[in-house]
Every structure is written in structure tokens, then in C-alpha cells.
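Journal club prep — side note

Before the paper discussion, L.F. wants everyone to see what a predicted structure for a comparable chain looks like in C-alpha cell form. Sequence:
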Amino acid sequence: MSQMLALAAPAAVLCGWFLRSRYGIAAVCLAAAVVSIGATIGAWAAGRWAESERWTGLVGMLELASLLALVVLTLRAEGGRRGAVAVWTIGGAVALWPSRFQDASGAVGALTLFGFGSVLTLPPVLIGLYLRGLDESRRRSVAAARRAQRLELAHDLHDFVAHDVSGMVAQAQAGTVLAAFDPVRAAALFERIEQAGLQALASLDRTVHLLRSEDGEGDGPERGPQPGLAELAELTERFTGSGEVVVRLDAPAEEPTVPREVAATAYRIVVEALTNVRRHAPAARVVDVRVRSEGRRLTVRVRDDGGGVSPPSGSRRGGGGSGLAGLSARVEALGGTLSAGCEGSGWQVAVTMPLKNG
């Protein structure tokens, strides 16, 4: 009889373990504790176990180890009232376990049982709560990283899509004029509008797909490398071909020593500055873009020859968006500085970023 009672709780733990995905670990914990208490009551009714019965004692130690392990797993996986009830029930089962071997009636026996249960269950409780805290901290870190990634994608959406759309608007305005007296040039202009629109749609689809995915990476193609200094020539040529503003690029053909984050930020600075020229400097005709690697720092300067509306104060033109503000924060995170303001009759955006940390 004692052998059957000794196997009851381990058998309940084993069966419950295979059903944990359906009922939850707290339910397994509670069921095992109830079975253990039932085995203890059965030992009271059938007669106390002899301490010389090594087999039942060994199985009983296995039972205690299983119950304490369930405390750790329950506290780590589940909180609230359900987990607390399961853990308290296991504490009672552990405290009653020694009474299978000897009578523990009276105040001294009750205190002995309480002390035994408290000493054995306290370390698993602390371990379970500690692991739960680590899991919560990890989840918060992952959530913060995903939010930062989504904000980064939102900045991409602003920088690149807004640049393409503003170019389409400028070309469409020019196309309405050209269509009256030069249909051939107007047709070419509309083709460029179509190309810019397709490029903007592709960027929009890619960004929305990444934002919809749970982990920010999506199930489709992986996020490609961000454009850098090598793509500045194509960017400035496309901007020059989209309107009447001529962009003069002064940048080295290759900068292998520039870190990827710095090069991507420099590209985005130029995109934002050119977009602002198109929005806020309608009379500008020349934009100078200068990129230089000087010592351990990279400098980027974008200056137009005027024609825009200067703001009364601040570092952004009136009516502008939050593009430069977001890029300024990114530049500062890289250890650099960004300034924007009037320069002669035009407007200049100047950025300096370190090429190496420290």
C-alpha cells in the first residue's frame, strides 16, 4: 500500500507534464500538489510509513524534487491568483510530507511541519520569481528594440518616399507647362514621374510589410543594406533630372573607411536636404553637396543658392516636417553634430560625424 501511495504523486507529475500545453503549468502544479496531499492522508489512514523503507523514501524524495521544480516553473510561467494558489498548495503538500513517517500532532509538530515546508519551498519561490523577472526584462528589451526598429522604418518612409513624392510633384508642375509647347519633353518628364512613383510605391510596400510583421523583419525578402556614399551620385543625378535645380556633387568615389551607419546617415542627410530645397526653396537653381573625410571625421554640407523662405528662428525652415529633427537625434547618437541655417542668400545643412568610436 505504501508503495502505491508513494508512486501516486510522481505519476501525477509525469502525466500532467504531457498535458501542460493544454491546461497550463499551474494546473499541473495544482493537480500534483493535491495528489501529494491525498497520498499523505492515505498514509495517515493506512498507517505511518517506516523510516527503514528505503524504496518509499527514495520515491518520496523524487516527489519532493518534482514538486519544488514545479514551483519554479509555475512562478516563471504564470502569475496572478492561479499561480499563487498552485504554489501555496504545493507548499502545504511539502509541509505535510514528513507526517507520512511520524505523527506530528500538537503545537510542536505543527511548527515543525510549517518550518520544514517553508525552508524547502522558499528557495524555489525565490528562483522562480527571479527567473520571471529576467523574462519580463527580456520581453521589455525586445519590445523596446522592436519599437525603435519601427521608428527607424518610419523615418525611412519619411526620408525616401517623401523625397520621391516631392520630385513627382515638381515634375508634374513642370509637365503641365511643357505639355502646351513641347510635348516631347513633357512625355519624357512624365516617364520620369512614373519611375519615381514606382520607386516610391516599392519603398512604401517594403516599409509597410516590415511594419506589419511581428518582429520587424517580415516573411519576405530581408531588409537590404541601406544606401550610402556610393549612391549619392545616382541620387543627385536623379534630382537634377527631375527639375530645374542643378546639384553639384563634390564627394570621393569611394570611402571604404566610413562605417556603414555613418555612410547611411550621410545619405539620408542629403536626401532630406534636397527634399527641403524642393519644398521650401522654389527659386533655387544650384545646390552644392560636399562630402569629405577629414582625419577621423566625416563632414557633409548641402547648400542651395537661395530663393526659399527663411524662418524667424530655429534650425528648420517654416512649414518643414520633423525630418531634420529626427536626423539630428541620429547624428547625435553617432557622436556627431548637425546644424542648419541661413548661409549667405541660401540655406545650408552641415553635419560632422566621427568615423570611429571613442
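L.F.'s comment for the group: The mean pLDDT is 75. Keep this in mind when we get to the figures.
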